[in-house]
Amino acid sequence: MDHGPETSDLRANPRRSFIRHTAGVPIEVRAVDGGAPRTQQGINVSKGGLSFISDRAIPLGSTIQVRIAEVDPPFEAEARVVWCASEGDRHCIGVQFLSANDAFRARMVEQVCSIEQYRREIEEREGRVLTSPEAAAEWIGRYAGRFPDA
Q: Does the pTM of the predicted model rise above 0.70?
């Protein structure tokens, strides 16, 4: 698995830095200069940003506010749109966080969301009800080694 490009690779193809680890949680996206937040689905977190599916394109270079309310406290960060690809009537948007601290925090959010998704899947598939700490311990034992380094 590619653990991310060098900086020159990112400039050549910014999409290469987005590793597909879908957390599948809703995120709110809003233009920094105002406007109502729009809820989007499908987070793919990378070393420096994330991608999501939107019903509208967002211009390259735009700065947006990203909010994930499913974690406590909610994750909020500013990011810059670095790519936008049309997929039928939807758009896949890639953003890069403006601070390294926000990028690190987003990866922690992704892990928390992945653990919660695992907890729900085990309950549906096996009928086992796990507490969040039990799910975290199992998830770490099974999947943490495959989770790319930050």
A: no
